[in-house]
Design a protein that fits this description.
The chain crosses the membrane at residues 12-31, 43-67, 103-128, 135-153, 159-179, 199-216, 236-255, 267-288, 294-313. This is Sugar phosphate transporter domain-containing protein. The chain has helices spanning 4-35, 42-68, 77-101, 107-114, 117-127, 135-152, 160-184, 194-216, 218-222, 233-263, 266-288, 294-323, 353-364. The protein is an all-alpha fold. The chain has one domain (24-325, 335-364).
Length: 365
């Protein structure tokens, strides 16, 4: 049984991962919305972000190889196209549609609609048997989603086109994070490290988004005075600099997301993301002057109640699991390749502490 010091360290580590994720997620949301006011090419922006993430992850892999002396994982084409491609396609559609929607909707409406992703993640997690059916879990999701809807009710400007884009991105996001959890927690693939996961995902994501970009933005971008028809070097440098800053934020967001989901689960990431979205709404209200009614604040209280219930349930079930088995696997009678050692609440049993600490040191390096 873990001592109080170990439990405190694990709690602080989890809190640190969540806050790390919050900084980049909230930052890139406001940054992309600000950038879209003058730069109306969201798909091109996403392609630049993907290219920068690939370059930064490649440099990070090289630095990790030099530091540890261990070669990084490289996947064969067959495994790469069959195992990684579905996750990459879902990820690029989620990100592309989300960025595209900023041309039509406000941050508040985007945040409210994007919160529905937790419902789709729960649905696909149950299908893939990454989460056990639990009526209390459904109550938590309903409380959080209903509270967040009340929190933003009548405080946003509705746009049907942007709303459909975000709702579709939320649905695809449910598939994305469920597949990501499966991908990262399959030990035989060797993608437990977030940097290795991003390195392998970005090329397929770039290729998958490129046709959509060429169809929607190729011609208009080629005639834009901000890039290809620029008349002065300073506007060009300004555009490249702002896109690069967004790329760095996107790399930090991807790393923090993958690190959090590899240590916990896709559903835990979504629950943490709900509170992040509440913080985003509060910042949007204070920075942009949105008016909040009594119904909005009541929704805020309901949302926090759902989060508190989730935390209490996690603590209760984690206590029970530490007394029993500490490893859960996907059904593998017909397909042994689906075996999946899941991390419950980001932790395994005490007999795995040495391996977990070694892996953590590798990630920190």
């Amino acid at each position: 049984m873990a001592c109080p010091v170990q439990l405190l360290c694990r709690a602080l580590r989890t809190l640190g991962l969540v806050l790390f994720y919050y900084v980049f997620s909230i930052g890139i949301t406001f940054y992309n919305k600000w950038l879209m006011k003058d730069f109306h090419f969201p798909l091109f922006m996403t392609l630049v972000h993907l290219a920068m993430i690939f370059c930064l992850s490649s440099l990070t892999r090289c630095a990790m190889h030099c530091w540890t002396g261990k070669p990084r994982v490289l996947m064969g084409w067959k495994i790469y196209l069959t195992k990684v491609a579905p996750t990459a396609l879902a990820t690029t559609l989620d990100i592309g549609l989300s960025n595209w929607s900023f041309l039509f909707i406000t941050i508040s409406l985007y945040t409210m609609t994007k919160s529905s992703a937790v419902l789709f993640i729960l649905f696909f997690s149950l299908i893939f048997k990454l989460e056990e059916p639990n009526p209390f879990l459904i109550i938590v999701v309903l409380l959080i989603s209903g509270g967040l809807f009340m929190f933003t009710f009548e405080s946003t400007q509705f746009n049907l086109e942007g709303f459909i884009m975000v709702l579709l991105a939320s649905f695809i996001g449910g598939i994305r994070w469920t597949l990501t959890q499966v991908l990262m927690q399959k030990a035989e693939l060797g993608l437990q490290n977030p940097v290795d996961t991003m390195y392998h995902l970005q090329p397929l994501m770039f290729i998958g988004l490129l046709p959509l970009f060429l169809y929607n933005e190729g011609l208009s971008l080629s005639t834009s005075v901000k890039l290809f028809r620029v008349r002065d070097i300073f506007p060009l440098l300004h555009s490249l600099f702002t896109l690069s800053v967004g790329g760095v934020l996107a790399f930090g967001l991807g790393f923090s997301e993958f690190l959090l989901v590899s240590r916990t689960s896709s559903l835990t990431l979504s629950i943490a993301g709900i509170f992040k979205e509440v913080c985003t709404l509060l910042l949007a209200a204070s920075l942009m002057g949105d008016k909040m009614s009594l119904l909005n604040w009541l929704g805020f209280v309901i949302c926090l109640s759902g989060i508190s219930l989730h935390v209490a349930l996690k603590a209760y079930y984690s206590k029970g699991e530490r007394k029993g088995t500490t490893l859960r696997q996907l059904p593998s009678k017909d397909n042994p390749d689906l075996e999946l050692p899941l991390l419950r609440s980001g932790e395994q049993g005490d007999h795995d502490n040495s391996d977990e600490d070694a892996e953590e040191q590798e990630i920190l390096h």
